[in-house]
Amino acid sequence: MTKNTHRPLTLRDVSEASGVSEMTVSRVLRGRGDVSATTRDKVLQAAKELGYVPNKIAGALASQRVNLVAVIIPSMSNMVFPEVMTGINSVLEGTELQPVVGITDYLPEKEEQVLYQMLSWRPSGVILAGLEHSEASCAMLRSAGIPVVEIMDVDGTPIDTAVGISHRRAGRQMAQAILKAGYKKIGFMGTKMPLDHRARKRFEGFTEALAKAGIEVSDQEFYSGGSALAKGRDMTKDMLERTPDLDFLYYSNDMIGAGGLLHLLEKGINIPQDIGMAGFNGVDLLDGLPLQLATMDACRKEVGKIAAQIIADRVIHGTENSEKIIELTPKLNLGATLRDPQ
Amino acid sequence: MTKNTHRPLTLRDVSEASGVSEMTVSRVLRGRGDVSATTRDKVLQAAKELGYVPNKIAGALASQRVNLVAVIIPSMSNMVFPEVMTGINSVLEGTELQPVVGITDYLPEKEEQVLYQMLSWRPSGVILAGLEHSEASCAMLRSAGIPVVEIMDVDGTPIDTAVGISHRRAGRQMAQAILKAGYKKIGFMGTKMPLDHRARKRFEGFTEALAKAGIEVSDQEFYSGGSALAKGRDMTKDMLERTPDLDFLYYSNDMIGAGGLLHLLEKGINIPQDIGMAGFNGVDLLDGLPLQLATMDACRKEVGKIAAQIIADRVIHGTENSEKIIELTPKLNLGATLRDPQ
DNA sequence: GTGAAAGCGCTAACAG
DNA sequence: CTGTTAGCGCTTTCAC
Question: Is B68-166+300-331 in the same CATH topology as B11-54?
Fold first, then answer.
């Protein structure tokens, strides 16, 4: 019953089974060089019969090339990142490159560890979220000698290349749209995540633009943990009890915004006349809500695609990308929760 | 400007910089064997100063051990799978093992390709969704000589070990709960995914249990693509127009169920008296809905944890798991959309 | 078209 | 406690 006799097959096994030299077997299996049709068939047949699976570890060491792209993101449960991954995948699928994902939980130290782990596989490129990294991380990235694409943010200085939107600008833009619509008493709800720099920048841009119009956020609250939908609902309830004269609620993400929306609808509040609302991200997950929430698209899938394309071009064709900062423009969607400008 | 002179550092560089043999450097860096504090410090210092990152490719080849666990799942956008990943991660984080994810899009051929790619890295173990695989995939898995854990389903014969719930039983159980509550005219809505075997088994179990009570599904509809929430809403609207006398709606996932719920609420239908509803999965993402949707928890996170634990135990401690089929019991949550049994 | 030799960067196994 | 020697399974390079 014990099949401890098990030894993974090697090129040599295929070589012996087919009576062809290891070298030629290798060539056939990689589709390289000219090999006569006869030998090729012999080799392919033998490989298939044996159930040979090449050893990429050995291949990579010998060829000094690893077709891996390290993708380092803060979280898997944020929905935003799976979408970015989808974009990355869609591009890499057409190539020999393969993504490998690492999760940082928004912690710089963990990012550093994950990065170290990843780099020890000598990937062909790195895609990582954000522009803020520990010094050690930056040093590793710079000296890795591989393309590095920082995604989801362009407010800062990239190590190599950045692809994303300006969250500061996004925050400002939303504030302007809100002001233009005539709202004046604004409440803000967000996640309690000092290390989510993108949320922070959005909020900064937001308050900055309000300040320019002489307005301050009238109330604010930050949550952590739990179901976002439920939290949005609860926070909204609390905030309106605390500060009943608010006429606008800005949420740092669509999910809590949706929770708030459900609460307001239940209370029979007239949206967007009495109270307007807006979120952020444009998750189409929420398309079926009773009212379309005003939001701003972070171009997640596109960001993933572009980042992957840059890596692929660099690795495969040696093409250097000319633009070092690629800023995408988030689309503002007024939905049905932000009244038309007066 | 071209820094093509770049050459990744090797053990030898650290060895030279510290005046210690490569072997000892290797020992220090891996924390193996007894090394005097003095030499250790020398080595660590040199490694840090140089910014040395070990080459795992070479290490893996030399030691014949690769600390990778292949995780093969159908999709990233299903929410279910990111959650499973979270469970897997939480266990593997405490070990030296690292997950590597592959996506199959529910396609057997793609699964085969992804599996082949993964196995060529000689991972220490494989976790993959479902019990249905192509013959070639099964052959590869069997002859890989590594632990294989099939997750999310136990209705079938595992290659090695299976961890999950019985979807057939889950379907039956939901049907029984519905019947017990006195509902009789039942509509079903699901995804158009012939290759989602788990959804299929759930539906089979469901209809089977209904049949036993002499009842058939009165109407059914399957969708594909688009926002699940919106689709749920639309399908529900269509179905109720088509078959107005339905008194229960069973959805193959919570997301479309939530869409349907929002629609019914808007129409002012009395839930669960006039129409009852249920979904599947127990995504706590939806916790904040106006009414808690009846659902059944697929134990996603736990499945991930157990699967990872089995692999970890086998790889690290050589412990063989005694149970080859680990069936978890999905918790039935009646929520507020399934009236109490009469 | 095919093969032989020489490593890739590291670690197992054994000496000292 | 530390160093030496041989590979791991492949691919590169150069012969034939």
Answer: no
